[in-house]
UniProtKB/TrEMBL annotation:
InterPro entries: DauR-like, DauR-like_HTH, PAS-assoc_C, YheO. Gene3D superfamilies: PAS domain (3.30.450.20). Keywords: DNA-binding. This is Predicted transcriptional regulator YheO, contains PAS and DNA-binding HTH domains. Pfam families: HTH_22, PAS_6. Signal peptide: none annotated. Transmembrane segments: none annotated. Residues 71-121 form the PAC domain. GO terms for molecular function: DNA binding. The keyword Thylakoid does not apply.
Length: 214
């Protein structure tokens, strides 16, 4: 775990204990993207466990129209069992300004729906904030974060030596996580992997076909 994230554990515990078991706090270490979850409080809210990876970072945070000053707040999503979650996320930067992690707070607001009138001030939320258009434009900060993610994903696997199947799995992972929604990501991935853009497009066609994606 990155030392900066370790220093945030008391804050995570404080938030989780203050707001109770409907409030989940998750620390992501983006220097290890494929196992980014390094600490959780009340992880049963969304089923978060250490060793898992990020899910909504690119789509719901970095490409959120209201993502400013390194944070996005009050975006919502549903769990697989239909519960409504209100979420807020902040980037964590080191002394050099590099993004090394994300601090996330997830609150189960399902039970509050019946109290909406009384709790209206507590529930400002952005509906349908997920990104659905491919290759969306991104500002410089978003591009920098995604470039760093790509570097970390590729460098972590390059150490092991890569086969074609390894390359396909890497492309599938990045596609699942929304990396290719950011304009310029294909160029960056091709450069990092030492492959042509045509090859990356071919890999994308392959993994999306296997996943039943259009």
């Amino acid at each position: 775990m990155h030392v900066l994230l370790k220093s945030l554990i008391p804050i995570a515990e404080t938030i989780g204990k203050t707001f109770g078991n409907r409030c989940e706090v998750v620390l992501h270490d983006l220097t290890i993207p494929e196992k980014s979850v390094v600490y959780t409080v009340n992880g049963d809210v969304t089923g978060r466990r250490e060793g898992q990876t990020f899910d909504r970072l690119v789509r719901s945070v970095l490409l959120n129209k209201n993502f400013t000053r390194d944070y996005a707040v009050n975006y919502t999503f549903e769990t697989e069992d239909g519960r409504r979650i209100k979420s807020s996320s902040s980037l964590v930067r080191d002394e050099a300004g590099e993004v090394v992690g994300v601090f996330c707070v997830n609150y189960d607001i399902t039970f509050m729906k019946t109290l909406h009138d009384e709790l209206e001030l507590f529930l400002p939320m952005q509906e349908d904030s997920s990104v659905i258009c491919p290759e969306m434009a991104a500002d410089q900060d978003v591009t920098t974060v995604v470039d760093t993610l790509i570097d970390n994903i590729v460098s972590g696997r390059k150490k092991q030596g890569l086969t074609k199947q390894d390359n396909l799995e890497m492309i599938r992972f990045m596609d699942d996580k929304g990396i290719f929604l950011v304009k310029g990501a294909i160029d960056k991935v091709a450069a990092c992997m030492g492959l042509s853009k045509v090859t990356i497009y071919g890999y994308l066609d392959t993994v999306r076909g296997k996943n039943g994606k259009s």
